[in-house]
Fold this sequence. Notes:
The chain is an alpha/beta fold. The chain has helices spanning about 10-15, 15-20, 25-35, 55-60, 75-90, 105-110, 205-215, and strands spanning about 1-5, 40-45, 65, 90-95, 115-125, 140-150, 160-170, 175-180, 185-190.
Amino acid sequence: MKVTVWNENCHEKSDPRVLELYPGGLHAYLASVLECDDIEVRTATLDDEECGLTDEVLADTDVLVWWGHMAHDKVPDAIVDKVQKAVLSGMGLIVLHSGHHSKIFRRLMGTTCNLKWRDDTKERIWTIKPNHPIAAGVDETFVLEPEEMYGEGFDIPEPDEVIFLGWFNGGEVFRSGCTFTRGHGRIFYFQPGHETNKSFQNENVQKVIKNAVRWACPVK
Ligand code: ZN
């Protein structure tokens, strides 16, 4: 299986805390989490030519993992067109955290993808579809602290499945792990993963992302 991890790689240049938590940047860290015997991982960033998402790279990608936040508008529409086409043709897409506002996610959802937001809270995630492949081996419930509050209403179309629910210590709730299908492509959105929090180091979060990549891999 071939996975491409895309990261805008911007916070890494302005906030030293990101590289302390995630040496080499979020893309390099996530690649190291995913890399294994049967998963070959490459990374791509906004700094690369064509955002690192050339026709050759997309044609050679089974699943694209997306992290972006402050530079969504720097991704050219032509790249978004190509990624959308690849998803419709069967490429899997895993959108993490603030990627909810990425051009590609909004394009595929067709809605604003707006949500409620608050900084520096405690989150408890509940696995509400434990028999789903993305939930395999994931605890029934686990805590991420600190994590950002992403709250309902979340302006997305009705997901195919909601696998994880998030609860926050302000009482807010969120559909933290949702699946969608667009054309032949499988899409999973997962809410944790603020760049200055340790969430990507959490064993359950890592399991979810690994499972999601396997689930989203196209059947050939
Ligand atoms: Zn964030």
